[in-house]
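step=encode ok
step=design start
structure_in=
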């Protein structure tokens, strides 16, 4: 069995143990009543009618119990999985009879009723087989088409030669002429489900990207603009009638 299967099995066993304990406790109470001379046959018969009332009164409780069984049976989440729902990210610590306990990234504890959890859209980050590496970098204008081709080729080689990168879906594309930059997209999958390891790989790749961009006599662009002054409209320390010249880029 894998670690995830073990976690799932342990969760099912834990929930099953709690149900058995509940049944044993109920049986012990009935046996105790009988030992004190009470007629438990009448009590059991009364459960037929009282059970309906109890079912209505405990509707939410039963919903949560069956919700927990549903979560465990289809293995949508397992103990140890990192999950995201809405804007919250947390790790499953326990799937109980009533609620599931999550440890959030802020290290707080979040309890969600199983009935509610069973109807939520949950993104199970723990079951990823790979993690997306996607960045759009903007290089400065002024690069010739030949230089851009050389830059793209070396960036593609960077991804192709890295054994930690999946061959499926990887790409490096010149996307568009941006407002301030020539935009290039880096898209690949890192072959890991460990987010900490992914961050290490991502850092190494981004540092190599910086070196490659510098190697091709370029740099990363930042928002700027060039101001041109029309001849005769404004004098900037030059003689009247001097030809208009661009001013330095304004950040």
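sequence_out=
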């Amino acid at each position: 069995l894998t670690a995830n299967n073990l976690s799932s099995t342990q969760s099912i066993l834990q929930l099953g143990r709690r149900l058995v304990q509940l049944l044993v406790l109920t049986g012990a109470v009935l046996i105790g009543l009988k030992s004190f001379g009470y007629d438990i046959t009448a009590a059991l018969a009364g459960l037929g009618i009282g059970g309906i009332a109890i079912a209505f009164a405990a509707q939410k409780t039963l919903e949560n119990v069956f919700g927990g069984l549903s979560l465990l049976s289809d293995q949508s989440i397992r103990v140890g999985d990192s999950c995201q729902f809405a804007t919250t990210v947390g790790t499953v610590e326990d799937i109980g009879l009533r609620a599931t306990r999550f440890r959030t990234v802020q290290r707080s504890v979040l309890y969600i009723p199983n009935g509610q959890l069973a109807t939520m859209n949950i993104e199970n980050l723990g079951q990823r087989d790979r993690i997306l590496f996607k960045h759009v970098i903007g290089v400065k204008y002024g690069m010739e088409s030949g230089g851009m081709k050389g830059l793209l080729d070396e960036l593609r080689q960077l991804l192709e030669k890295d054994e930690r990168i999946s061959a499926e879906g990887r790409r490096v594309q010149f996307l568009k002429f941006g407002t301030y930059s020539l935009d290039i997209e880096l898209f690949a999958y890192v072959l890991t489900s460990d987010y900490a390891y992914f961050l290490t790989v991502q850092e190494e790749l981004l540092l190599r990207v910086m070196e490659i961009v510098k190697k091709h006599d370029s740099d990363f662009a930042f928002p700027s603009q060039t101001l041109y002054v029309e001849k005769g409209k404004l004098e900037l320390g030059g003689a009247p009638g001097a030809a208009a010249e661009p001013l330095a880029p304004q950040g």
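step=design ok
step=annotate ok -> The radius of gyration is 32 Å.
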